[in-house]
Amino acid sequence: MKSSTNKISRLTIASSAAFALAAFAANSILCRLALTDGSIDAASFTAIRLVSGALVLTLLLKSPPFNKPAKSRGSWFSAAVLFIYAAAFSFAYNTLGTGTGALILFGAVQLTMLIAALLCGERFRGGESLGFLAALAGLVYLVFPGITAPSLTGSLLMTGAGIAWGIYSLQGRGSAAPLADTAGNFTRSLPFVAALSFFFLREIHVTFTGALLAVLSGGLASGMGYALWYAALQGMTSIRASIVQLSVPVLAALGGVLFLSEVITLRLIVATVAILGGVGLALAGRGSDPRYQRGIDHES
């Protein structure tokens, strides 16, 4: 009976993680789909995404098994960083391809967290330094000027989004109620959303299709995706959770090819190998350290 229960638990964790990772990639695909054909402007996509995410997460907190008392409900700092991530993410996809954007985002998130670890007194061990340099080189190569280089503005915006999400993830370390904190952060981000919408008031353009894609991104890919990711993290070590996220840029790139007819360039392939391989090497080096064997509390 115990073996059967363990199998069910492992299946639940695996299925939750698979859906969550697909949802993270879907955020890039949905945003790119909405902006490519002009169905919605970036500011409105950001606003609808965060509003719908806040609504879904609030509803989840009122439903079993998430309706448990929680002492913390997020913070204004985390909400501000979440907003910066979401806004920069949307505006970056005005000019970036799906896979390229996801790769820059992912690389920036992981590099931000590795740098933060160094600033906190941690030191590279074994292959960590080599992995860090390889990932950094891959990111620099991807955005280096050239015929196939992505937009500089888009690259800078997505790098900023990645840094913001890395900081947001670090803020969530040790959260006793990550879902409640996330719901609180989404809700607190709404005043920033209102300010963004007012600033871009003259550029607002929203069609039914664009609004639907934004709702799917916020309510399903973000809201439900985050909830399932937190469920999956209960049975995953830090190193395993970090490594499985390496699949997100790949899934996003494939989605771009299938749904947006985007072309995968040689530059993107080389950069992907360097960034994901480097991050994987750095994380593998951390895996032997017992301090990193606890579950993590963030998403990419």
Ordered list of secondary-structure elements with their pairings:
Blueprint: H1 2-36, H2 42-61, H3 76-92, H4 98-119, H5 128-143, H6 152-171, H7 178-188, H8 190-199, H9 208-233, H10 238-244, H11 247-260, H12 266-286
Descriptive keywords:
0% strand; 300 residues; mainly alpha
Question: What does this protein look like?
Answer:
The protein has twelve helices and no strands. Helix content is 73%, strand content 0%. It has helices at residues 2-36, 42-61, 76-92, 98-119, 128-143, 152-171, 178-188, 190-199, 208-233, 238-244, 247-260, 266-286. The two termini are 36 Å apart. Helix 1 packs antiparallel against helix 9, helix 3 runs antiparallel to helix 6 (152-171) and helix 5 packs antiparallel against helix 12 (266-286). It is an all-alpha fold. It has one domain.
Summarize the structure.
The protein is mostly helical and 300 residues long. It contains 12 helices and no strands. The longest helix has 35 residues, at 2-36.
